[in-house]
């Protein structure tokens, strides 16, 4: 991809989506490269970032020319209104130390009841009455 200094966030998203054959560019999330850790930064670039491509590639004051992308199932505008919870479920009937980890995405205004309803969809609970 031609690295034009004039490319905006939308230009980059459109070109990457075209290259990857993704119909909706808003489902592509970008993350800068962390030079010190040699991996993606923990926080992705904000959707519709107000800078240009060089700004997207910059880690502090250095431009490393590395940026990561991931294709999401949900568009970034929808995802901004969601909160992802990581729920560890310990099964009392199985004697293992590792919990089952479930990632649950819900609207930010969801209640604990909504979380429990969503967990019920992913966790199979069985009771043994001996």
UniProtKB/TrEMBL annotation:
GO molecular function: cysteine-type deubiquitinase activity
Gene3D superfamilies the record matches: Phosphatidylinositol 3-kinase Catalytic Subunit, Chain A, domain 1
Listed EC numbers: 3.4.19.12
Domain Ubiquitin carboxyl-terminal hydrolase 7 ICP0-binding stretches: 4-57
Keyword Hydrolase belongs to the record: yes
Cross-referenced InterPro entries: USP7_ICP0-binding_dom, USP_C
Keywords: Hydrolase, Protease, Thiol protease, Ubl conjugation pathway
Ubiquitin carboxyl-terminal hydrolase C-terminal domain residues: 67-123
One of the GO biological process terms: proteolysis
The reaction(s) this protein catalyses: Thiol-dependent hydrolysis of ester, thioester, amide, peptide and isopeptide bonds formed by the C-terminal Gly of ubiquitin (a 76-residue protein attached to proteins as an intracellular targeting signal)
Family in the record: Belongs to the peptidase C19 family.
Name this protein carries in UniProt: ubiquitinyl hydrolase 1
Taxonomic source organism: Lactuca sativa (Garden lettuce)
